[in-house]
Amino acid sequence: MKFDLKRTLAIFCLLALFLCPLVLVAQDDEKPTFPLETIYAKRKPNPVRKILRNVKFSLSTGYGKTYMSHKLDDFGIFQRTGFDPMIYPLGMAINPKYSNWINQVSLDTLAVQPDSFLVNGDTATLGFKGKGFNIPLNLTIHYEFLKRFRIGGGLSYEAMFLRQFNPITYTDKIQSFKPGSPNGFMLRYYGMVGASFYRINNYLFTGDLQIGGYKPGKNFDKSLMKRGIYFNLGITAEREFSENLRLFVRPSFDLKKYTLDVEGKPTVHKMNAAYVQVGLVYSIPELPRCFHKDCKIQMNHAHGNKEYRSRVHPFYKKQNPGYGENHPELIKYKGKNKRKLNPY
Fold it and tell me: pLDDT tens digits for 103-160?
């Protein structure tokens, strides 16, 4: 048989053209055969928004109850029937006498009558206890880090209403009284630290401490008043509605006191308080909202080389940024349908 070189070369070339692509695909089957960057945009996160997503703004209000008390070791008490009790410094004449020593000091020269009752603080335990209630409006800004800790500060502006003060001894001889100008406002400013200690599903529990100062309103004579710092210890229970919105309840207890100068002698007043506050926590989303008005994509997505969050996500509703879940529970499982064994 005669060897045909031209025919052999032609067959070899055809086999090479057919087998080479198969060999290349087999050797490099993990690499895409087209550039993915033409379909999937590379995410370019905004560093400012990335930081701001951990900054939380909270607004709350609630109810507080103030527990006030003081002792009058350096004073005596003068009680005349039909009048509020008055105090006078020990070691001085019974006149002048003073009233409103809770928040303002008022001079009085009421005359002593035969039926008047007098007792000195160096021979008996003298003092008064009283209560009040508060309605606070509180604004807090804090930063959360390591998924557990938080640090920040805030302002609180609250209405304060003082009520009746009762004597701690000689209750049958010393009358109760209500301070002059009992109603007013108080401004509080503070720094805060906290740490989350327990989570169950969408509920998060955090212990926090506030340390700051306070400034009473015009119903307190601040020229005679010396204030210190106050401490507030509380537990915040948060319910997460979405990645940007939470509802919280915070019971807490205040420790604070002040001194009021009466004739050169300071009287120490404790003004502790218990609070229950309810409010909302909001944070700025990391991604901007999609600018296309007709865009209905539920998950985080890209337009060009920038990434956006869905514009159909309610900010108050939990969403999975990977696939969205505007309707996580089907209608067939809601209401009366959920009682059926087969809801179809």
Answer: 999 998 888 888 899 999 988 999 999 999 999 999 999 999 998 999 999 999 999 9
Cα dist from 90 to 73, 95, 97, 122, 239, whole Å = 9, 11, 11, 8, 56
Query: In Å, what is the CA distance from 62 to each residue of 83, 238, 250, 268, 326?
Result: 36, 15, 9, 28, 32
DSSP string, 163-198: EEEEESS-TTTS--B--SS-EEEEEEEEEEEEEEEE
Between CA 234 and CA 277 the distance in angstroms is 10
Query: With contact defined as beta carbons under 8 Å apart, do 183 and 219 qualify?
Result: yes
> What digits encode the pLDDT tens for the residues 313-342?
777 877 766 656 666 666 666 676 666 656
| Superfamily classification of domain 55-70+125-283 | OPCA outer membrane adhesin/invasin (2.40.128.100)
Q: Which helix (H) or strand (E) holds 94?
A: none
Q: Which whole-number Å values give the CA distances from 89 to 173, 197, 234, in the listed order?
A: 20, 51, 39
CA atoms of 41 and 326, how far apart (whole Å): 25
What token pair was written down for 118? 């007098």
Residues 213-236: tens digit of each pLDDT: 999 999 999 999 999 999 999 999
Nearest-angstrom CA–CA distance, 280 and 189:
19
pLDDT at 311 over 90: no
pLDDT at 120: 93
* Domain boundaries defined on the chain: 55-70+125-283, 286-344
Specify whether the backbone of 111 is left (phi greater than 0), alpha (psi in -120 to 50) or beta. Answer: beta
- C-alpha to C-alpha distance for 251 and 273, rounded to whole angstroms: 11
Could you tell me which residues are beta bridge partners of residue 65? 133, 274
- What does the alpha-carbon distance between residue 150 and residue 253 come to, in Å, rounded to a whole number? 19
